[in-house]
Amino acid sequence: MIEVRNLVKKYGNHLAVDHLNFKIEAGRIYGFLGPNGAGKSTTMNIMTGYLGATEGEVLIDGHDILREPEEAKKHIGYLPEIPPLYMEMTVREYLDFAAELKKIPRQKREDAVTAVEKLVKIKDVEHRLIRNLSKGYRQRVGLAQAVLGFPEIIILDEPTVGLDPKQIIEIRELIRKLAKNHTVILSSHILAEVREVCDYILIISRGRLVASDTPENLERLLGESETVEIEAKASSAEIREILKNVPGIEQITIRRGTEETTYADILQKKGEDIRERVFLAFADRKIPLLMLKTTRPSLEDVFMELTQKNTVPDAFARRLIQEREEDRENAGSL
Fold first, then answer.
1. Strand bridging mode 29-33 / 14-24
2. What is the layout of strands, in order, in the sheet containing 29-33?
3. What are phi and psi of 20, to 5 degrees?
4. Is 0.85 topped by the overall pTM?
5. What is the CA radius of gyration of the chain?
6. C or N terminus of the chain, fewer CB within 10 Å?
7. What is the distance between the terminal CA atoms of the chain, rounded to a whole angstrom?
8. Where do the domains of the chain lie, and which CATH numbers do they carry?
9. What's the pLDDT tens digit per position in 9-33?
10. What stretches of 191-277 adopt beta strand conformation (E)?
11. What are phi and psi for residue 182, nearest 5 degrees?
């Protein structure tokens, strides 16, 4: 549906997007992640035709966004981080204007505008000036403009920024609803939001793609070893004494607990599951375990690992190389 090939964007000597390659397939919610200055918004602006590229190409349903912008843009609805609103218009006037720009046939415009007003729940404010609306309602108006005409691809750049918790929940629910019939690309700094809403994630850093996979696989690939966390009614010395004979342990980190208890983080060796061994070891000594649980790397851990270092972890590097080899094989078979 969308194919980004060898995309480069330079601002003078600054390389904002560095030979970026990825594909967007139909029927998914994609999360587009990266720290400030990583090139997220620049990439989105190129994908939607707002910016030109220094090198490379973006194909939207087979149409080059730079060479065939009119055909390519028919397939895209875009909500920038700052919605492009005209404050002196009413909501209805603005959406009618947007429908005209999108070349929705005149006889279908009224029904099309009414449909998106109901979808994003702004029908009751359609006759109010946009400048008199709250930020949450303005965001909804911008989203209505993006969805108008119901294009196959909806691209949302920070759609929940600045909204209150209730508004954020409502926008998330709307994104899930849109995903039933559209492909959605969502850029956000809120990792919990991406983890909850998206089923595929692209992470870029310094203008390069450093990971692309489902949230679950990203967490699994980073965490080659899991940590077992315990709380026991024992001193740190007693815990170390009990655990020293338990096989499969890589490292033990003791943390202070209450006056009677102590916490410990136990790093397992790759491929090991030591939970039963740990439980039995404490039971043999008749020392109560108040907590025993496994912790895995979170999406936040993945994000920090990938965006704070210049190197890509081996697991991700192997996955990216494999995907590129498959792409070349597929291209050769056509």
1. unpaired
2. 76-79, 153-157, 183-187, 29-33, 200-205, 208-213
3. -85, 135
4. no
5. 25
6. C
7. 17
8. 2-214 (3.40.50.300), 224-295 (3.30.70.980)
9. 999 889 999 999 999 988 889 999 8
10. 200-205, 208-213, 227-232, 249-256, 262-268
11. -140, 160
